[in-house]
Amino acid sequence: MMEETSSDEQPEMVTREEVEQAEKEANAQSPPDGRTSFPAPKPLPSFFPNSYTTNTPSRSMQSGNSRQESASTQSESKSRVASLSSVNRKRAHMDDDSMSSTYQTSSLLSWISGNSLVSKVVEKTKSSVESVITTLDPGMKEVIRTGGDINIVVTSCKDSKLGAVREAFQQVFGLATVTGQESESGTAAQPVGYTAGLKGAEERIQHLRRSSTISDEQVSVSIEGFIVELLPDKWYEMSCIVLQDPVNHIDLQTFSQPTPIPTQYIHSAQDQTPSDYPLRWAGLSVSIGQVIEQANPHIGHVDWQRALVGVDRRESLVLALRSMAYLYSQKLPTSMIS
Fold first, then answer.
1. What is the mean pLDDT of residues 193-212?
2. pLDDT for res 89
3. SS3 content of the chain, % helix, strand, coil (to 5)
4. Which of 12, 30, 85, 242 is surrounded by the fewest CB atoms within 10 Å?
5. Would you place residue 12 in the very low, low, confident or very high pLDDT band (cuts 50, 70, 90)?
6. Buried b vs exposed e over 234-264: b needs ≥16 C-beta within 10 Å?
7. CB-neighbour burial class of residue 328 (10 A; exposed 0-12, middle 13-18, buried 19+)
8. Per-residue CA distances from 176 to 21, 172, 269, 335 (Å)
9. How many CA atoms, within 13 angstroms, populate the side-chain half-sphere of residue 325?
10. Is the pLDDT assigned to residue 287 strictly greater than 90?
C-alpha cells in the first residue's frame, strides 16, 4: 500500500541569504534611471465621472459642498411648493369661475322660467307661428294640437259639433285627440225643453256604447239642440252638452247661449207636427232648421243661426265647450294635466 500524504505539511523555510541574493538579482535587472519597464496607465473612459479622475477633496471642501447642495435642495423645494401653490390658486380660480358661470346660467334660466313677460312673449311667438301655419294650411291645426292624454269621442261628425269640441278642448289642454262617431238620439226631430235636450244628448252616448262603437271607459261628449219657451211666447234655441268620463267618475252638463227664434217659425213647426206623433211628448216632428229653410231657401237649415242673429252655432258651442273643458280639467287627476 502507498503511504498517505499528510495534509498538515509544514511550509518550506527561506533563509536570510536566499532573500539577499533575490534582491541583488532584482536590482541587476532594473534600468539605471530607476524607471520600471511597465507602460504608463491609459486614461479612464469618458463615461466615468470626473470625480473619479480627480483627487479626493478635503473634508472641509466636502462639508462646504454639502451645505451648498442642502441650500440648493431647499431652494428647489421652496420653488416647487410656490409653483404648486400657484397652480392650486389657478385651479381654484378656474373652479370659482366655473361655479360662477353655472350659477349665472341657472339664475338666467330661473329668471326666464319665472318671468311672466318672457312666458307671454314665448307663448305669443308660438301662437303666431301656429297661426301662420294654420292660415296657409287650415288642416294643419288639427295635426299640430292632436295628441296628449285627452282622448274624446264626439257623438257626431258634423263640423259645427266636432270642430267646436276639438277647438275648445285643444285651447284648454293644449293637446287633445278628438274624433267623431255618428249616433242617434232616440228622441223627437226637434226636442222641446231642457229635459228633452238632456235625454237626447245622453241617449246618443248610450247608443254608441250599446253598439260597441266605443268602449265603456271612453270619454264622450254629446251635443243635442232643443228649443225652449223662456218667456211667454218667446222661444229660443239652445244646445245641451254632456260629458261622461266613466273611469274618473266625471259627469258634466252645460248649455250654450240661447238664440232667439221668430215666433212664426215655431208656429209653423207646431202645425206640421201630427197630433198622433209618437214622440210628441219629447218635441216636434220637424226641426226649426227645416222650417226656416222652407221659408228662406237661400239660408239653409245648417247655419240658420248666423242668418238670424249674426253668430253661427259653432261659435256659441265653442264658448260653452271651453267652460266645460275647464271644469273637466279641474276635476281630472293632476297627473293627466301636468
1. 96
2. 65
3. 55, 15, 35
4. 12
5. low
6. ebebbbbbbbbbeeeeeebeebbebbebeee
7. buried
8. 132, 9, 39, 15
9. 24
10. yes
Nearby residues of 203 by Cβ (< 8 Å), 6 or more positions away:
184, 185, 186, 187
Surface-to-core class of residue 136, CB atoms within 10 Å of its CB (0-12 exposed, 13-18 middle, 19+ buried): exposed
What is the end-to-end Cα distance of the chain in Å, rounded?
122
Min mean pLDDT across 9-13, 188-192, 231-235, 301-305 is at 9-13
Residue given cell 338666467 in the structure block: 108
CA nearest neighbour of 144 among 153, 125, 131, 161: 131
Looking only at the bridges linking them, the beta strands covering 151-154 and 234-245 are unpaired
Nearest CA to 268 out of 280, 284, 257 is that of 284
| More confidently predicted of 22 and 5 | 22
pTM here? 0.60
Q: How far is CA 124 from CA 121, 129, 327, in A?
A: 5, 9, 25
Q: Taking a C-beta distance cutoff of 8 angstroms, is the pair 235, 227 a contact? A: yes
User: What per-residue string of b and e applies to 57-93 under the rule 16 or more CB within 10 Å gives b?
Assistant: eeeeeeeeeeeeeeeeeeeeeeeeeeeeeeeeeeeee
More confident residue, 16 or 92: 16
Rounded Cα distance, 232 and 325, in Å: 33
The alpha carbon of residue 117 and the mean position of all alpha carbons in its chain are separated, in whole angstroms, by 22
Burial code (b: 16+ CB inside 10 Å, e: under 16) for 189-206 equals bbbbeeebbbbbbbbbbe
